[in-house]
Amino acid sequence: MKMKNKICLVTGAGRGIGRTITEHFIAEGAVVYAGDLASPEERENEQTHENIRVIQMNVTDKTSIQTAVKTVINEAGRIDVLINNAGITRDGLIQKISDEDWDAVVAINQTGVFQVTREVAPIMMEQGNGNIISLSSVVGIDGNIGQTNYAATKGAVVTMTKTWAKELPRKGAKIRANAIAPGFIRTPMTDKVPQKVLDLMESNTALGRLGEAEDIAKCAVFLASDESSFITGQVIRVDGGLKL
Ligand code: NDP
Questions:
Q1: Is 33 a catalytic residue?
Q2: What is the C-alpha separation between 14 and 23, in angstroms, rounded?
Q3: Which residues of 111-143 are buried (b: 16+ CB within 10 A; e: fewer)?
Q4: What is the pLDDT of residue 225?
Q5: Closest CA to 183 of 157, 153, 161, 209
Q6: Has residue 228 got a pLDDT over 90?
Q7: What does the pLDDT look like over 93-127, one tens digit per residue?
Q8: Does ligand 1 come within 6 angstroms of the Cβ of 20?
Q9: pLDDT mean across residues, the chain
Q10: Is the CB of 15 under 6 A from ligand 1?
């Protein structure tokens, strides 16, 4: 088991990549606090293992973040791994992106990642170790038509990650920060993407298929485990060789 007894906090863990990361972490012996918008009562079906703790955590709401982090600390006493996974898209060509679409994407994908990490980083510094893994996107590196808002926020995840990799270990704490940049992965998020775009992405992918959430979860296990103990400040593309 690569993650035995590691205490993990995953945001947006109710479905898609966050849910699959949670399942892979549990299989590797971790205890996962699975945060998401809905309450534990509404998410009873996710309580599938004694090491999953379903908690409510809205990454745009400071009180909700603080309550969730307090719950983890009160129950488990530490946070070994933070997965900044919650994210949304509100796609459109630039002239069609409304203020609301801009603000909503920035609030969750960028400010949310900042706010959650601001709450967790001091705990990791105090305990002397920690591991922060954030979901960026190939779009945050290469850009993509119709995704100005999303690209901006996923680029910010890259630069925040590189900043934390330098800043957080300054006083000797063994804290790592890395990002995963997925290509196009089959999840409820990409269900909204028109089939012709998905077909184009598939044909632009060297390995000839879209990704699955498991492809991302396996990378997350590697980065969260001690097998990657000398890797920090990196952005790992998991995209099957996609050319945008
Ligand atoms: P999904 O839309 O399938 O899942 C996103 C999850 O985030 C949902 O459980 C959603 O909850 C939750 N969420 C939304 N808003 C908030 C919030 N304010 N606070 C807490 N949780 C919230 O997305 P994916 O699994 O596909 O994506 C996961 C991450 O991976 C995202 O950051 C995404 O940008 C990134 N990514 C995904 C790619 C893909 O192709 N799928 C490609 C590149 C990056 P609810 O169900 O209640 O809305």
A1: no
A2: 11
A3: ebbebbbebbbeebbebeebbbbbbbbbbbbee
A4: 98
A5: 209
A6: yes
A7: 999 999 999 999 999 999 999 999 999 999 999 99
A8: no
A9: 98
A10: yes
Q: Which residue is it, tokens 């990454």?
A: 59
The closest alpha carbon to 18, from 119, 135, 117, belongs to 135
pLDDT at 146 over 90: yes
**Inter-residue contact 183 to 238 (CB < 8 Å):** yes
Q: Which is nearest to 151 in space by CA: 203, 230, 87, 96?
A: 87
Q: What is the largest CA-CA distance in the chain?
A: 50
Residue from 110, 140, 121, 143 nearest 235 by CA: 140
Pocket lining: 153 vs ligand 1, CB cutoff 6 Å: no
pLDDT at 1: 96
For residue 50, the CA-to-ligand 1 centroid distance in Å is 24
* Model confidence band, residue 131 (pLDDT cutoffs 50, 70, 90): very high
Contact 48, 77 (CB under 8 A): no
Residue found by looking up tokens 């690569």 in the block? 2
Average pLDDT over residues 210-226: 98
- Closest residue by CA, ligand 1 atom 27: 17
The mean pLDDT of 224-242, rounded to a whole number, is: 98
Q: How far is the CA of 11 from the centre of ligand 1 (A)?
A: 9
| Ligand 1 center from residue 172 Cα (angstroms) | 33
Give the residue among 55, 25, 59 at the shortest CA–CA distance from 42: 55
Phi first, then psi, for residue 238 (nearest 5°) are: -125, 85
| Rounded distance between C-alpha atoms, residue 228 and residue 103, angstroms | 35
The pair of three-digit structure tokens given for residue 91, joined into one six-digit string: 């796609």
Q: How far is the CA of 124 from the centre of ligand 1 (A)?
A: 25
Q: Report whether residue 205 contacts ligand 1, using a CB cutoff of 6 Å.
A: no
